[in-house]
Amino acid sequence: MCSATDTSQADTCQRSLAKEHKYLTLKESYTAWHPELNEPGPMVLLGCGTASSSCGQIVSYPLALIRTRLQAQAITSVHTQEACTMIGLFKTIVKREGVAGLYRGITPNFMKVAPAVSISYVVYEYSRSKLGAKAS
């Protein structure tokens, strides 16, 4: 039986770290270029959130795809022995579909980035400032 637990944990950790690091880097770069502003406005925060989430998805999407396919194989029991592991499935996808196959279905994820993830960054920033917390 195939297991997708390892890919799920790795995907979650990798995506979170990549998004948070990129967001803070973009925000700090903006404030360095515009020292006259104390805090970036909501549109800048939306832009930083969108860019960071997009970068995080580009990095982590292949793992999410592999996790989903492993889970689907576990339910349907239709799989080859070589495609039962992360590495085996990765090789199978690249061999059959090319590198673009690792990003099949990413478009809907990009479409939800701006309204979902970016708004959470704006809410985070305004909540942090109202509570008087300092950015680390």
TrEMBL record:
InterPro entries reported in the protein's UniProt record: MCP_dom_sf, MCP_transmembrane
Top-level taxon: Eukaryota
Solcar repeats: 40-130
One Pfam assignment: Mito_carr
Membrane topology, record value: Multi-pass membrane protein
Keywords: Membrane, Repeat, Transmembrane, Transport
Predominant location: membrane
Subcellular location: Membrane
SUPFAM superfamilies, alphabetized: Mitochondrial carrier
GO cellular component: membrane
Gene3D superfamilies assigned: Mitochondrial carrier domain
Family statement drawn from the similarity comment of this UniProt entry: Belongs to the mitochondrial carrier (TC 2.A.29) family.
Protein name: Putative calcium-binding mitochondrial carrier CBG00135
